Amino acid sequence: MAVVYTLLVLFLAVFVAGFILLVMGAINFDFSNSEIPPGVNQPVKLRIIHVMLISRAVVGKILENIGICSQVSFVRYMQGRKTLGVDPKLFIKDLWFEKVPVRIYQPKVPSASQRRGVMYFHGGGWVFGSLETHEKLCRFIARESESVVVSVGYRLAPEHKYPAAYEDCLNATVHFMKNMEHYGVDPANIIVCGDSAGGNLAAAVSQTLAGRSDLPKLRAQILIYPGLQALDFNLPSYQQNRGVPLLFRERAAFYMLQYLNGNASNLEEVLEGSHIPIDIKLNYRKWVSPDNIPEKFKVRGYKPHVLLDCTTEVYETVKRFCEPNLCPLLAEDAVVHQLPESFILTCEYDVLRDDGLLYKKRLEDNGVRVTWYHLEDGFHGIINSFDSDWLSFSSGKRGLDNIV
């Protein structure tokens, strides 16, 4: 018995020591590759959040290495642990729309007229995020705008590859539009909304519905720091913010590949731009180009990137990056000009900033009315921090107030 006890203590000691070394090693490595620009408000808070996220990932990796669970499942579990109680101002119900789990938030206060309906697609790089991670956000939007909000729990990568997430969001939206009378929603006032990967999904769904004559027209699309293309990971914002938490340049490309095919073996080619043939890149250059980014966004150390060609083998694995349902920035003008009024939020210190700026230009060039809100001191993921107790950022609340 004493021997077993001694072995157990020894195992725990080694585990804890290894954990501390791993965490410190990961943090040191990540810190050496990270940078919090002076323009970010409350940089210490951002650093703390960053450390917490790294630590969670390291623990997940340890658990994966010793065979308890995968790193991805551990991070997802930790993300979804917090549950909120009853909301005195909202009816909240979990349902299924066409085999897709959704959570509906309906204001309790009586309304003299039909309400607007908001389909919300959460962020998380198509790999993370859930109904739980965006619970506070959806409650806030429903309460403050007195709207019916439908949060969509779409399937995640890498288990479910493209187009699974897009199809779930589209099917849930179509179901809602066909049954909106059950929720007291005005058919002329339905909005799609999403942050990060969810912004990508909202843009793709909006483009698909623009061509549907059998459904009401969307009233608007709200895109919160969306990722909208995978042709060029060397745009000014990708270069300037490559190491700014909470989304590094390399991770943005990694998540895109996870969504595409659940495999990141071509990550280096995607980052350097040798994954798409030059003739195809030149064809899309009218839409995806640093030339379309206002000069004021290039002053923070941007260097033009040399166009590289790619092998047929690499292109075959990633050619679906040219599909608008995956990269909405590549949709034809005939589709873009049919899109509804749009709200785009971008953050200065975000690798995805220029995706939003390029889409803003495309929409405006096609006569679509755009409201653009730019957080000069914002970073990727800041909206979710609007109500995180002592780790809250006033910019996140300001951005969310503008969305409302």
UniProtKB/TrEMBL annotation:
GO MF terms held by the record: carboxylic ester hydrolase activity
Family matches, as Gene3D superfamilies: alpha/beta hydrolase (3.40.50.1820)
Keywords carried by this UniProt record: Hydrolase
InterPro entries: AB_hydrolase_3, AB_hydrolase_fold, Arylacetamide_deacetylase, GDXG_lipolytic_enzyme, Lipase_GDXG_HIS_AS
Domain Alpha/beta hydrolase fold-3: 118-263, 314-383
This protein's GO CC annotations: membrane
Annotated catalytic residues: 196, 350, 380
Highest rank taxon of the organism: Eukaryota
Pfam families: Abhydrolase_3
Family the UniProt entry places it in: Belongs to the 'GDXG' lipolytic enzyme family.
Stated name of the protein: ADCL4 protein
Taxonomic source organism: Chunga burmeisteri
Gene coding for it: Aadacl4_0
